Amino acid sequence: MRPLLLLALAAVLPLRAADAAFARAEDKLDRIESGHARPGSVIVFTPAEMNAWARGRVPQMYQGIRDPNVQLGVGTATGSAFVDLLKMRQGEGLATNPFIAKLIEGERPLKVSIQLDSSHGHATARLTRLEISGIAVTGAPLDFLVNEFFLHLFPDAKVNQPFELHDNIESIELRPDGVRVTMRK
Fold this sequence. Notes:
The structure is a single chain. With 185 residues, the protein is of the alpha+beta class. Helices cover 42% and strands 34% of the residues. The protein contains 5 helices and 9 strands, in the order H-E-H-E-E-H-H-E-E-E-H-E-E-E. Strands 2, 3, 4, 5, 6 and 7 form a 6-stranded antiparallel beta sheet that branches.
């Protein structure tokens, strides 16, 4: 009986840890968005919190995305997931040419890498690499895909251009140990 109990606990504990990390991430986001974060404070989202939030919210926000994951580096982040691009387009209410639909339907592994520069209440996210089903795209072909596909799905997205940070955020710093959000003083 004891081995079964330990096995059951081993299966449940990671879920509870993920739930706790999700709750911490949600609490931190709520503090920032509601204006309750102290001026000048630094709020750190750990990799565990980032991933728990991504797993809990991204599939709810967008159809056709499964198992999102975030990896952080110095000034960089790489997000990966399994995506069905056709379902994503349909979820946003976009029509797709039948020929193109045949090319993009079905679930595929997707990996997107960005570089983030941020200061003085502004940031610039540069898309540096896209990988679909193990095929990497960079440079001019990547720019083409961003303009012809990504920006149609997310027209308000600011890619490769500065944008203003909201909610009194001074800067966002990506680091391997977490995302540091510094509030304006």
